[in-house]
Amino acid sequence: MNTLFPIFVKANQLHTLIVGGGYVGLEKATALLGNSPDARVTLVAPEIRAELYELAEQHPLLELVKQPYHSLYLNDKDLVIVGTNDKDVNRQVQVDCKARRILVNVADTPDLCDFYLSSVVKKGDLKIAISTNGKSPTFAKRFREVLEEILPDSLQETLDNLTAIRNQLKGDFVQKMEKLNEITKVLK
Ligand SMILES: C[C@@]1(CC(=O)O)C2=NC(=C\c3[nH]c(c(CCC(=O)O)c3CC(=O)O)Cc3[nH]c(c(CC(=O)O)c3CCC(=O)O)/C=C3\N/C(=C\2)[C@@H](CCC(=O)O)[C@]3(C)CC(=O)O)/[C@H]1CCC(=O)O
Ligand SMILES: NC(=O)c1ccc[n+]([C@@H]2O[C@H](COP(=O)([O-])OP(=O)(O)OC[C@H]3O[C@@H](n4cnc5c(N)ncnc54)[C@H](O)[C@@H]3O)[C@@H](O)[C@H]2O)c1
């Protein structure tokens, strides 16, 4: 059964901890900041890839801490993503997060995850998150590429026009909804 409940998180209102500074840490930090450039992110690892220092130059709210994980780093964190090359550390972070009721993603380890990262299609204000319920991240990546190819850039114009109409519409909630549903029938 597919029981995942998708939400869109305002990452720039949260403080995220990433544990691990290798390829996985870099991939997750890039994904997070790519969507939410001014999100506050702390990354902790004894070894940190050079690309992460370059990323931190572009994102002043990305703090790199060259230390091994300690549970003290969970203080004041809202969300945690862990992907070290030490399974025991990954497990410990997950246990510590559960004890504090902090949502945690253990990269590539579905059983330990409270949430999964998704493949993300961006066309201006339209954002589509793709999940395969953990069945095939590669399919999610390929399907993202297909959607990126077929969705026209003009979609942003459509969204801008609909926002303008939405702001001009008079009447109560139901009347506005009916009007917007009528106008957007052509999209079906
Ligand atoms: C979407 C994306 C987001 C991101 O990570 O940012 C993402 N994985 C991506 C790519 C990717 N990951 C892997 C490959 C290699 C090929 C392959 O194995 O398929 C590729 C392909 C590539 O890189 O080309 C390896 C892998 N991943 C997981 C496992 C464990 C397992 O399945 O049991 C293993 C095996 C590890 C091993 O063999 O040891 C698990 C997860 N990966 C997820 C997300 C979550 C489920 C998402 C969903 O429901 O679809 C979940 C459950 C948890 C999580 O990590 O959040 C990102 C694509 C971004 C993009 O480009 O659009
Ligand atoms: N890179 C991938 O695409 C990929 C794909 C599938 C699985 N994996 C697995 O994910 C794990 C991580 O992969 P990677 O490529 O990022 O590894 P990596 O070797 O590049 O980096 C590992 C990182 O973990 C950090 N680390 C080790 N002990 C730590 C501790 N106590 N506290 C904090 N950080 C600690 C290291 O300092 C380093 O930054 C590996 O076990 C790998 O097998 C990676």
CATH-level-2 architecture of the largest domain: 3-Layer(aba) Sandwich
Number of domains: 3
What composes the largest sheet?
A: 5 strands, parallel
Q: Report the structural category.
A: alpha/beta
Description:
The chain is elongated, with a radius of gyration of 20 Å. It starts with 14 loop residues before the first strand and ends in a 5-residue tail after the last helix. The mean pLDDT is 96. The longest helix is centred in the middle third of the chain and has 14 residues, at 87-100. It folds into three domains: 11-116, 3-Layer(aba) Sandwich (Rossmann fold), CATH 3.40.50.720; 118-151, Double Stranded RNA Binding Domain (2-Layer Sandwich), CATH 3.30.160; 155-187, no CATH class. With 188 residues, it is of the alpha/beta class. The chain has six helices and seven strands. The protein has a five-stranded parallel beta sheet, with helices on both faces. A two-stranded antiparallel sheet has the order 6-7. Helix 2 links the parallel strand 2 and strand 3 (62-65). The structure holds ligand PQ2 and nicotinamide-adenine-dinucleotide. Residues 19-25, 44-48, 68-69, 83-86, 89, 108 line the site of nicotinamide-adenine-dinucleotide (NAD). This is precorrin-2 dehydrogenase. Pathway: Porphyrin-containing compound metabolism; siroheme biosynthesis; sirohydrochlorin from precorrin-2: step 1/1. It catalyses: precorrin-2 + NAD(+) = sirohydrochlorin + NADH + 2 H(+). Residues 124-148 form the Siroheme synthase central domain. Pfam families: NAD_binding_7, Sirohm_synth_M.
